[in-house]
Amino acid sequence: MQKLLISGKRKLKGTISLSGSKNATLPILAASILANKVKLNNIPLVKDIFTMAELLRYIGLKVKIKNFKRLIELENNEKKINTLAPYKLVKTMRAGVLVLGPLLAKYRKAKVSLPGGCAIGTRPVDLHLFALKKLGAKIKIKDGYIIAEARKGLRGAQIKFPSISVGATENALLAAFGAKGKTILSNCATEPEILDLIMFLRKMGCKIENFGRKIIVRGNTKSKNFINHKVISDRIEGGTYLVAAVLAGEKITINKIDTNIFKNELAILKKMGARIVISKNSVLIMKSKNLKKISISTKPYPGFPTDLQAQFMVLMTQSKGVSKIKENIFENRFMHVPELRRMGAKIEIKNQTASILGPTKLTGAEVMATDLRASVSLVLAGLIADNRTIINRIYHLDRGYEFLESKLKKCKAKIKRI
Predict the structure, then answer these.
(1) Which of 265, 376, 377 is nearest to 314 (CA)?
(2) Half-sphere exposure of 85 (CA within 13 A, CB side)
């Protein structure tokens, strides 16, 4: 099993360019089931993308990945289409459930394994199924599979989500594309990745009106023959490297960053005392001293993202006073805390709120990654810790970060994989 070795206390200098968004690419790949031919640019070369590509091949699409050019070409000629998404291809990736909506919309049936992914909470698919049932699907769960059918096709409906869910919003959008009539979705998620999916569906010919948390889809659309789309930059990767730069940077520039969707995170970093210069498509972070404490609550976009909670927690270990993070999205997303404590962090948890005392000297240790974002928080801690940090189970990292080691090495970090 591979490990990362990090020698800390090295000042980082250089430039980091962001990769394409994993969380935007995955639903767009699922949407390709509804299309004829698709060319998708700026994709990240991470494990989840390769897993989704393999799933689409299993379903019957032609999929060609051109690694050097960061693009995927997909073709659905509707020959030998398989409406099954098996456990072996969905077990490690939550986004596998997103093929459910397009398969139902186009082929009127689907059998999809209940998804896997990071063990950060229950994350049930109830809201996905709630929306699809409103669109007319008959659904049952048997032997670990979602078995769904819509013999007469899906039909438009008014759907108000009981709570905000990114995945359920995406699945409902994909299903509504092929539903007869008008679908009105309310209490939707509004993440930039969803807006990118909407942009893609519009290129396919779908009429979609977006009013914040309300989305109107006029479905039963026949896809245009060819769609060319460039995926947005990865928002969570960007936030991760912003934190790395504030923690350990002497002078770091982050390129290919849409600063409009980072307003909240940049405002928090500035409030903590980070020295930041913001340009149109780049951010310059200079050496920051005397970081201040802060309190944060995770919320649906445009609030503070749960996917950056672990990274900011490491930053709080170097801030003066007691900082706090309240986790409102997932009930089990503090699994990185025991590992950070092993490195010397002073963190207490009570009622889904973590209290972090700083500044604290961190010391390298052997630690265990428990999920995707927790694993990168340990990398950040290793960058500033005394001595050497060994991170086990780094396959979590490979699910969502493209060329993490090489990007950090270019900024003078001492990090290697064994």
Answers:
(1) 377
(2) 37
Task: Determine the pLDDT at residue 223.
Answer: 78
Of 118, 192, 178, 108, nearest in space to 149 by CA: 108
The 10s digit of each residue's pLDDT in 197-222 is 999 999 999 999 999 999 999 987 77
Q: What percent of the chain has pLDDT over 70?
A: 98
Distance CA 326, CA 339 (A): 19
CA distance to 23, 28, 127, 149, 217, per residue, from 124 (Å): 18, 21, 8, 20, 25
Tens digits of residue pLDDT in 67-116: 999 999 999 988 889 999 999 998 878 888 999 999 999 999 999 998 76
Contact indicator for 171, 201 with CB cutoff of 8 Å: no
Of 118, 188, 206, 411, the active-site residue reads 118
Closest Cα partner for 43 from 61, 15, 14, 64? 64
Convert the pLDDT of each residue in 274-317 to its tens digit.
999 999 899 999 998 899 999 999 999 999 999 999 999 999 99
CATH 3.65.10.10 applies to domain 22-230: yes
pLDDT of 332 reads: 67
Question: In 119-243, which ranges are E strands?
Answer: 138-142, 145-149, 158-160, 182-186, 207-211, 214-218, 226-230
pTM, entire model? 0.94
- Domain ranges across the chain: 4-19+233-417, 22-230
Specify whether the CB–CB gap between 136 and 151 falls below 8 A: no
Q: What share of the chain is helix, strand, coil (3-state, %, to 5)?
A: 35, 30, 35
> Which residues have a Cβ under 8 Å from the Cβ of 313 and sit 6 or more positions away?
325, 336, 337, 340, 347, 354, 356, 377
Active site residue 118: yes
Pairing, β 207-211 against β 214-218 = antiparallel
Q: Are strands 145-149 and 138-142 parallel, antiparallel or unpaired?
A: antiparallel
Among the four given CATH numbers 3.30.200.20, 3.65.10.10, 3.40.640.10, 3.40.190.10, the one describing domain 4-19+233-417: 3.65.10.10
